[in-house]
Amino acid sequence: MGIRSVGRFVPDLEISNEEVVARFDTSDEWIRTKLGITARRVARPGQLTSDLAVEALQDACARANIAPETIDLVICCTGTPDHMLPAMAAAVLRKAGLFDIRGFDVNAGGCAGGVFALDVGVKYIRSGEYSRVAVVIADTVAQCLDPEDRTGHAIFGDGAGCYLLEACRDGQGVGPTLMRTKPELYYTAFTERQDPPEGLPNRFSGPNYMRMDGAGVRGFALDVIPDFAEQVVKAAGTTLDDVDLIISHQANPTLLRRLIRELGQPESKAVIVADRLGNTSGSSVILALWEAVESGRLRPGDEVLLVSFGSGMSYGGTVLRWCGPEDFGAGRRDAA
User: Is the pTM of this model over 0.90?
Assistant: First the structure.
């Protein structure tokens, strides 16, 4: 099962370090040194998670030169849906004008979605019931930050990405996927429901604020992910030395560079976009993959290690053997 194309969308509203410094007791030097971030993109007022998701879906279709109407299934992954119900997939299909396609949501716990949701889509292709599956991962975490959370506003951005999946030639595409969860670290990163203001009817009515133990996330990434990455490449029949690129969840660039060193790999193998986009939660792996493809760093036949990790704490990994157009089957009607 392979990724025929990768789509992305990030809002045009950029928040610079200077703007963060103007709001909080911090400095540009601290943000650059501790986090490695210079700017982040955030949704404009009224710009919903589904709006970002639709743009990423359409971008993936355009890059594959296929009509969205030829998709069989849309899977959306988000921790920040427009509404509790219905599924965000329904909003995406409605906004995209796709009224004859089925869809549902996956909540993989935010940042882990880059691999978890991909695995769900791959399994639907592998079932033989669906030929073309779009996996859209979008989050607007920057919209659910505590107004007083200095670090959160320095770290998080909003964004969306889309994997367009199809069956491909044997030996190419998505390799074995490993997934893990450490529930004892449940409160390392979570969205906290505040007590509803007086007069509101129920516990779902109050504000929701993203809470993150930065030191806990850093410790988890450095203690757990290196050994896990070794397990992932072993399952794929390769080694860290042999993979061409390493794309990890974009927690922050400083942590990513340290993680690459812990893996014993050169920084040149890393793909980093969080320096300009911020931590975009589940979509961050796709946004980095999109950049690797767009910049020419990832070419057909290359091996790329994908690792996502986030709240739960949940983490997943796989190795992609990147496909070229010739690796996908012919004869399917791509135009609507």
Answer: yes
